[in-house]
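Exercise: predict the structure of this protein bound to DOR.
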Amino acid sequence: MTEELIITKPDDMHLHLREGETLKHVVMHTAKQFARAIVMPNLENPVTTVTMANRYCQEIKKHIGDSLFNPLMTLYFNDSLDSDELKKVRDSDNIIGIKLYPAGVTTNSKDGVSDFKNCLPIFKMMEEFDIPLLIHCEVSDKNVDIFDREKVFIDKYLINFHKYFPSLRIIFEHISTKEAAQFVLESGPTIAATITPQHLLLNRNDLFSGGIRPHHYCLPVLKRSAHQTAIVDAALSGSPKFFLGTDSAPHPKNQKESSCGCAGIYSALSAIELYAEVFYKNNAINLLENFSSKYGASFYNLPINSSKIKLVKKPLHIPESIQIGKDQIIPLFAGKTINWHLSS
Ligand code: DOR
Ligand code: ZN
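Solution:
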């Protein structure tokens, strides 16, 4: 008999949808699997105000047809956030938090934070208003080795943020090191983390297997296999501090396969199946539902979704490439076959 798994419809707690033609094509990949997704604000012109976030949300909704998918919005952390704007965030139904990018750390982060001293009064207000702070936890200092940038951020900043603002809910996005997993596990209940499929399925050898693999390049960059193991252990730990966030980030094939290829892995096409693959291979498929559909919602004080999805154990072939308008995008695990299939 075919093995099946019926679980509460999951949420993607970290997603890049972009704009224009890309948005139009990619949003349904997410909407077919996920009830909700937290949409990142790092557009070319970043989403810095409540008005911009509402406008972007309307734009997304134009492309979801009659699907019940609900995009949850974020603002891009900036020095102009004052108490009036933060009260609007607190009172908004669809704006869920504020995403902080250290300046220069990743795609469209040039307008990010360059001096954390300026952030502290805003953190204080966010703590008072109970607004979640989502952080790309890496230093952007070019003198720090790229493989150490997450660990240095924890030691230099994150420990202090948590110490000075213990009630501020912080989401450590896309953890990639054993130090990150350990920090999250050992810190108070206001600290949680998202985990991507690529940091579960790949390590830095996959960036250089037989040649340079630009479609495996993301930030934080893949780390050595001991870190990958620590991330898998965190996802399978049953701790409610770790939950699903794909960080699916589409970039056109030609911009990834270039002399300076950009960071980002497109996983939205088969995201829940890729996570199922990890849990299944580790004999822990029964732990998938909490990780994908419950722990994130609880941390964000959202209701658990009432609808369900069915996953069937049968081979799923991931296409080599998908056409997005005039561009091609290479999905994670392109050309590979995995074991679980989302049933329509
Ligand atoms: O690999 C990444 N791509 N990491 C990020 O933090 C941003 C994302 C993007 O927007 O392309
Ligand atoms: Zn991201």
